[in-house]
Design a protein that fits this description.
five-stranded mixed sheet, alpha+beta, elongated, Heat Shock Protein 90, 422 residues
Length: 422
Amino acid sequence: MIDVYMLNGIAVGLFGMLLSAAFCNILWSRKKRWLMAGGMAGILLLQGAVYFLVDRSTVQVLYPLITHVPLIILLCALGRKWFWNIISVFTAYLCCQLRRWLALLIVAIVSGNAVTQEIIEIAITVPLLLVLIRFIAPSVRYIGKLSVSIQCQFAFIPVLGYLFDYVTQIYTNLFVKGTPLVTEFMAFVCSVAYLVFVLHTSKENQIKSQMEQAQENLNLQVLQAVREIELLRDSWQQARTYRHDLRHHMQYLSACIENGQSERAQTYIRDICAEIEASKVICYCDNETTNLIFSAFAGRAKEQNIPINIRAEIPKIIAVSESDLCVLLSNALENALHACQGLKAKGITGLIDVLVYEKGGKLFIQIENSCDEDVMLEQGIPVTDKQGHGLGVRSICALVERYNGIYTFSVKNKKFTLRVSV
């Protein structure tokens, strides 16, 4: 019995020390591995010396001093992050309970005795150690790289379990007496830990969802900026073409005048002026960004024979940034234009009516467009099950919320109306 107990003591000692080292974020050089091996051998020799000098119960009382304290000192000396190295020892001690409980389960199944339990504990030491080092240790080391506050959250259970075990079973007999306050304590701790885990997970998921939404909004803004760049590129290309063809225009007009074809020259000049007029930026207000956006969408509406009325009174400088104004107006007008395109495909003429003005430092936007189908609203926000649609609405909502503004969507008499105040 004594020999089996000693072997099991060596097995559990090696199990705990190797697992503690595996849980630490230590860069294991060859020198450090030899120092760790020497330290473990020294701890085992100290355990053996104490075992032969005192009885078994005294060994249990002195075990933290002859094993855990030297191990903590050794790991802290080998690694820089002393806090998590200490927690690693408590975590490894908690994992030792797995080894003991599995042995108790097998003993209960086979109706074994205390010696059987010691033998089973020795037998499952290596397989369990390999499993924990292979699958659990990387995750534990990852936690050791996080902030101290997060480390403390994960250290709570191992430290409390360690203290509870020694206070109620080694240094006192409170657990053996079956005091309800003591026997129910760990169940209480598990309940609290579960609730904290639920709160923490919920908060993390909310933060993740917000980050994903922010990323999605950023992607939408990038896509919108790309569309605007394409419009500017088209305008630039058209201006470049006019400059390139200017010499040819002049040569043609000169030839007409020389041949006395003044009426033909006048007609040609009117046609060129009409083309230039069609491509120019219309001045709706004093704000240049607004004029560029409205001119681009007015041109698109004209190409598709969709009537659009725009009234704007916006000063040159407003509180909303140019990029945000671009995203807000472009998404709203894009949705209105898309709705009228759907009506046109059905042979119905749609209409877009835009009213934008600034008052008291606030920007007010109202965009009304014709619609033929019922628009689904959930909590006042239009939704759709069509693939790739609804992104513009989410972008508008997110942007307005960022400015602590107000937005409303409404449908009445086949008219869809968006109102925004930022």
